[in-house]
Amino acid sequence: MSRTVVGIDLGTTNSLIAVLRGERVEVIPDGEGRSLLPSVVAFAQSGVQVGYPARARLNDPETVVVYSAKRLMGRGYEEVSGELPFLSYPVEDIRGLPMVPDRFRNRHLSPPEIGALVLSDLRKRAEFYLNEPVRDAVITVPAYFNDAQRQATKDAGEMAGLNVLRIVNEPTAAALAYGFGSGKDGLFAVYDLGGGTFDFSLLDIRKGIFEVRATSGDTHLGGDDFDAAIVASWLEDLKAVNGSQDKPEIRDLLRKEAEKAKIALSSTHSVEIAIPALHFRTTLTRAKLNDLVEPLVQRTMVPVRKALDDAGIEPDSIDGVILVGGATRLPRIKEAVQEFFGKTLYDTVDPDLVVAEGAAVQGHILSGQRKDLLLLDVTPLSLGIETMGGVMSTLIPRNTTIPTQAKEMFTTFLDGQTRVDIHVLQGERELSKDNRSLARFSLTGIDPMTAGAARIEVTFMIDANGILDVRALDQRTGKSQGVVVHPSYGLGREDVRELIKESFVHAKEDFETRLLIDAKTEAQTVLNATRRALDRLDDLIVPKEERILIQTQMTRLEEAMKGTDGRLVRNETTQLDKATQPLAERLMNHSVQEALGGKQVDE
Amino acid sequence: MPHSFERVDPSLCWNCRESLSESDLCSSCIKIQPIGHDADFFSILGLPVQLIVDMNELTERFHLKSRLFHPDFHRLENGTEQDISLNNAALLNQAFKTLKDPFERALYYLDLTGPHHSPQGQKLALPPELLMEIMEFKESLEEQAESQDSIGAFRTLSLRIKDVESKILEGMAELDQMTGGRDHSSLLSCRASLSRNLEYRKYLKSIERDLKTRSSSARGQMV
Question: Among the three residues A304, A338, A373, which one is the final residue of a domain in this structure?
């Protein structure tokens, strides 16, 4: 039997899960038929909620509502401190990592743990829909995500009980979903503007092979910034009318209205906004919106030019541009992309769904059921090591096709030195301090010898997920050399293992809770049916002894239902079923007899 | 898990020990075979060691081998196979990246077929008078760029780059024709002039990079 591999788009604002069944990609809806799951988690005394119910509690003072956690994923506290004023929930610096305190449970959650809660919810949704356990998954990330952000996303998946077969870049996934490769060969661009990130990729598609030529992006540019631009202009207006009013609650209120207005302006030319609570009335026209967002639109063109330049491609040699991400619905975006490339825009697949659909296609490939399509992706950032004088020496340049590797020889520079430290960096700048520190690796247990005599070959391997793995080989002995990793940001491997273990404990708890609820529901149904039958039937059909026997079992079941042991409830329900079985058979016989006009059927 | 596979006998399959009729795949157990340590980039792609390469053929071979080795197609197999697949795919990508760019290919070729083949490549010193010329050219370009004519400076530079690149491409074709022939001394002088031109181009490219960063930071200051 082939394995089902689901595709997941873990977005800044919304997340989705999709699967390929037969020939069709299906985006899996929730119980109410909704495809999107808001990437929002709410912590309250009463419990933890995910998705729409969590989002609905945004202004509830008794609840901590966490959103846009993807912006914190795989990053250090220092790095994200600039964003914190825009988040209305608390984020604390715990050992250099941004963590969200859950004051009701006396714990702190890391961004991957928040992501895991969203992923678990999607996983349950898929299990219910497919009626089978779901383990294998492909999760998408912005193409411009660095090593730590990719690793953090993978960790989140594992904490949610998923076996993450692959981390796939969002624009590449989108290209897969468009069904290119089946005859439509050529050079395509993917312009992907999501809630919080912007990606731009150039793909050469030839006979089912999707070869990424270059990718570029901005991990801090998205639809949220468009809303923020509108809010900023309204705050100016408000200030002019009733003095300074820049409070988080007001911002929240304005942001919601801004988002609504922005969406409305994709189809109309003017909207009226009225917020009675603030005595605020205004009109937003599409022209005014275009003015407000123009600087952001121009910002997206910087990565576009960079990728074209890296690949040595002129805009007019591109065959078409695929639009991805909710923010590309904005008419000004379409116009700007059209102006720049002057080529066909592909926007027929819902930009919100297209990434998850592509992830499902990639899942199908990884499940071994499809051999005609292959993605050849690239690493978005150069990888290097720190050398003398704090300069970065590049080992793997950006836009190198992955998997890829680089080998470098290391030695000691002191007599008797037994350890060599390697500082690995990611980025495009000259100096180490201007690049992102990925990790410090220590080669340990080197035999003491004269300086320069040791010869340790270190292999830096970037796998197909874009995640770095470092291995070392002692050239003299041919033995592999110990490598100790100290990640600069993000959780250490030990922490992650611990959290995964913990999440399994929680998963079990969750399972127990679900079992109890299901068992109680079923028990109640059986009890109601039995009670109705006993009330309806006289002693002739139900002899007194039998009636007492059934009633005793009903009491036992009701007692069990007061407890929390789902298995006991289930057992007692089975016992009640058994006790009522003779009666049920007699009744069945009775009704069949009636139906057949009073004839005995058993003889 | 090992990162490289030193096999006792590379002519036998690592898995079933049958002798291999082709190097990539065992015909009896259908397992992919690790690319050997000594394989050069041309042989990894199944191409003859030549300077002039048909780009279509190169791409096609790269795609064909990618379909064989890429980790996506070995995701559900055991650890050893996943490791072989990862290593092979990484080597294949490296080989393709080097060979698809004619100038990188030429540098690699000269190193591979040179008398002192070294994996790290060889340092080649340009004659001092040529270095002087480059320095002067660089200064004149910078002056031009500073006197508000950066477009002109770029144009002068890219003409010079185009010129040396076409010389390199001619030299590559010439060298391919001479290879295997008897005229040893002209072969050597052809090699020498090719590597000098490649080195010269490298300098010009680095001037181009400097000029680009300068002009973009100048633009940044204006904003």
Answer: A373
Chain A residues with beta carbon closer than 8 angstroms to that of B74 = none
What pLDDT shows up at residue A297?
93
What gap in Å lies between CA A590 and CA A333, rounded to an integer?
Answer: 72
Domain co-membership, A99 together with A57: yes
Candidates A210, A374, A407: best to mutate against B (most CBs of B within 10 A) is A374
Q: In this predicted model, what pLDDT tens digit does every residue of B6-34 receive, in sequence order?
A: 566 778 888 888 887 777 888 778 888 88
Tens digits of per-residue pLDDT, A5-27?
A: 999 999 999 999 999 988 889 99
List the catalytic residue out of A102, A121, A170, A225.
A170
Given its phi and psi angles, is residue A457 left (phi above 0), alpha (psi -120 to 50 degrees) or beta? beta
Strand A320-324 vs strand A186-193: parallel, antiparallel, or unpaired? parallel
What is the full DSSP assignment across A39-90?
Answer: S-EEEETTEEEESHHHHTTTT-TT-EEE--GGGGTT--HHHHTTTGGG-SS-
Distance between B183 CA and the closest CA of chain A, angstroms: 38
Chain B residue nearest residue A366, CA to CA = B72
Are residue A341 and residue A207 in the same domain, yes or no? yes
* Identity of residue B195: S
**Do the Cβ atoms of A400 and B93 come within 8 Å?**
yes
CB B63 to CB A165 under 8 A?
A: no
Q: What is the ipTM of this complex?
A: 0.84
Q: Is residue A461 part of a domain?
A: yes
What residue numbers bound the domain in which A434 lies? Answer: 381-491
CB contact under 8 A, A209 and B97: no
Annotated catalytic residue, options A9, A155, A357, A377 = A9
Pick from B2, B75, B87: CB nearest A165:
B75
Confirm or reject contact between A367 and chain B (CB < 8 A). yes
Cα(A157)–Cα(A534) distance, integer angstroms: 51
Active site residue A192: yes
Res B146: pLDDT: 77
In degrees, to the nearest 5, what angle opens at C-alpha A231 toward C-alphas A227 and A234? 145
A601: in domain: no
Confidence (pTM)? 0.81
